[in-house]
Amino acid sequence: MADCPRRFWCFCMFLKFQNSRKVFDACLFPQVLSAKAHAAIKTRSEHGEESVKQRKKMLQTLPSQYVSVGHYELVVRGLNITVMKVKHTENLKTFHWHPKVGIIGSQEEISSQSKSIERQNPAISGSFESSVSFSDTGINSDIIDVLKEQEITEPTVIQKDGIPTILAGHNTLLTAETGCGKTLAYLLPMINQILVWQPLLRERQLNSPLGIVVSPNRELANQIGVMAQKFSRKLMFTTKVLTGGHTKFKMMNPSFEEIDLLVASLGALSKLTTTGIYNVSNVHHVVLDEADTLLDDSFNEKLCHFLRKFKVSLLQTFNTLTTLPSGVQMTLVSATMPTSLTDILSPVVETESLVRVTSSQVHRLLPHVPQKFYRLGKSQKPAQLLAMVKQAVARKHPVIIFSNKSSTCDWISMFLNESGVKCVNLNGKMPLDIRTGKLNLFQSGDVDVISCTDIGSRGIDTVRVKHVINYDFPLYVADYIHRCGRTGRVGSAEGCHVSNFIAGLREVELVQKIEIAARKMDTLPNVNGNISRTIQYRTMKKMEEKFM
């Protein structure tokens, strides 16, 4: 820097100050760099001018901000600035960079290379990396026939590994990235078990299921129920979906029917089993879908109380057609799982008995879904949102917009509708009938824009979504993973992406952690959500009991 003009040095100091308070576009998105084609880049090293290949290799490692000032190129990363001289030529050309492609070139070159990368998407074609068929997993041939009718012919990676483990009777921790087929990974072996148990329990009383799937919300319970009913109609077993809403009426006027598989939201299930309307004495398999949500502050105490009704065994044996298992098998399923799982589950299940089935992409950003971060003032967010949504609607790209509060969710919907963009809203404060109706409008394609809170981020199969916008950046890394997972799912079209609005200092710190993990191609840090408060509460309670 010694030979730089003083004002240029001052400009560099200004950039340092700016970069310390501003979030630049993270290297998670194809980025336009202001490099010049055929430019002879000279570094201040003793080696002098480098070869073209060496220069391209250097450019591949460029950080998130690369700007041009006069005859200089500045590479800005954090508070560090590297200055390189540039010899201009008449032939100018813009270079692009894609984090997964890992090359520098023209937009056309990047486009062709990125298509190759997208074909390797682990949530789509990458899931079918082996020649294993459903028959190899050990499930009933009748179940496979129903799968073929739905044009599902090959298991995904998590299904290939998870189905045999669950069929063998192990308590299972099933963790994989969003949208990779986890629901079928536990549902198929569970249906297989029910078909075996049915003849052995013909005389059981009404409202006495053989298996239970627990979900944190009504929308996910309904979605799982619809999927299970596609099999129950063909295979002659009964599926019941139980969700909250009008719970007092259900308690006063209960219905009694034959039930083999009960899919339920936790709140309604807890109340109706406690009152004895549903009998759990014949249950031999319990699945916790979106287990990380069920284990956090808002559900944990209620969940533990419910699970104490069951005798969870270390290992069941389901390969016989003449005997029933002596205890209950437990399966936990989620796209994220807390590192402190042992502390959470220890009161209700022997965690050493859990067999972990995990994909290579768990707790990672999906490599086929580009993401971009926008540093905005709070007053700039509405205009930026409107511009993005109008562009997406013009292209017929369905959009899901996330916010942290119900009031913000409702305001976004009102703002977009008043601006001429048809939008529905979805949050936990809505009555059940309204929530269901609005979600159906979006899922059916009648409306292409939905504004929601995190209630729409967990487990719901939004295969048609092409653009996720985080209007409010999430409070926890786990929530960020689930929100991003609403796009780029198995069966989704190409061209999915995520946009994030960054407007506060707390958000900047979380973004930096995500960006570092993305640069290193590493797992995202601290995927615990607000579960840590549960552990702290329990620890404090034990200490109080000890000293009192």
Automatic annotation (TrEMBL):
Residues 132-160 form the DEAD-box RNA helicase Q domain. This is RNA helicase. Residues 163-355 form the Helicase ATP-binding domain. Pfam families: DEAD, Helicase_C. Its EC number is 3.6.4.13. Keywords: ATP-binding, Helicase, Hydrolase, Nucleotide-binding. One of its GO terms (molecular function) is ATP binding. It comes from the Eukaryota. A motif (Q motif) lies at residues 132-160. Residues 388-532 form the Helicase C-terminal domain.
